[in-house]
Write a structure and sequence with these properties.
There is one protein chain. This protein is an all-alpha fold. It has 2 domains: 30 residues; 32 residues, no CATH class. It has 3 helices and no strands. It is rod-shaped.
Length: 63
C-alpha cells in the first residue's frame, strides 16, 4: 500500500499543475486589443463604415 502512495501523489500533483497551466493559457490567449475587435466587427459586417471610422477616431483619441 505504501508503494501506491509514492506513485499516486506525484501523479496527482502533475495533473493539478497541468490543468492549472492549461486554464491560465486559455485566459491569456483570448485577450485582444480594442482595435482588433473593431476591425473584426467591421470585417464581419456588424458595423457600417461610418460607425467604424467614428469608433476608430474615438479609440485613437484615447491614446
Amino acid at each position: 500500500m505504501m508503494m501506491w502512495s509514492w506513485i499516486l501523489i506525484p501523479v496527482v500533483l502533475v495533473l493539478v499543475v497541468f490543468l492549472y497551466n492549461g486554464r491560465n493559457r486559455q485566459n491569456t490567449e483570448k485577450r485582444e486589443n480594442p482595435m482588433d475587435i473593431l476591425d473584426d466587427r467591421f470585417a464581419k459586417g456588424e458595423i457600417s463604415k461610418e460607425e467604424y471610422e467614428e469608433q476608430k477616431r474615438t479609440l485613437n483619441t484615447k491614446n
